[in-house]
Design a protein that fits this description.
With 168 residues, the chain is of the alpha+beta class. Helices cover 38% and strands 26% of the residues. The chain has helices spanning 2-25, 74-96, 121-136; strands at residues 43-46, 49-55, 58-59, 62-63, 102-113, 143-149, 158-166. The strands form two sheets. It has a five-stranded mixed β-sheet. Strands 3-4 form a two-stranded antiparallel sheet.
Length: 168
Amino acid sequence: MELVLNTKIRPKLSIIIMIEEKLESIGIKLPNPPTPAGSYVPAVKTGNLLFISGQIPMEDGKVIFTGKVSDDNLETAQKSARMCAINILAQIKREVGNLDKVSKIVRLSGFVNSVPEFTAQPKVINPASDLFFEIFGEKGKHSRIAVGVASLPLGSMTEIDAIIEISE
């Protein structure tokens, strides 16, 4: 009986380890998920969908990337978007316990605090999309919007929210 039990447990454990190893292998250590900056919750689960509230590039309670995005600071803005994606991952893990429960990244909505003449918002958000594909493979492919806005909370360069399908 014990041998059968171990056989059933091992595949699930190897999936968890695989995802954690994947994150580690690309240099990502999930932070403590940021707390909301307003009167809302960081995530809402309904059915098998998890809605992650907008994540900004926060680390240890501070916004790391602030200011307006232009052609002059595109690479910095891309780092900001990637950090938003990492915070989304931290929120998913907090909400459902581990990332192996992700069955699909359904949608990302990316907001870029950009100067009026800047039109490369998709390029800013691409690193976030790329990260989800790198981690989850086909499950990481998603629909997306990337729009420019006049300002974002706490002066952040980027903000990204997400809809995630979860398996039980």
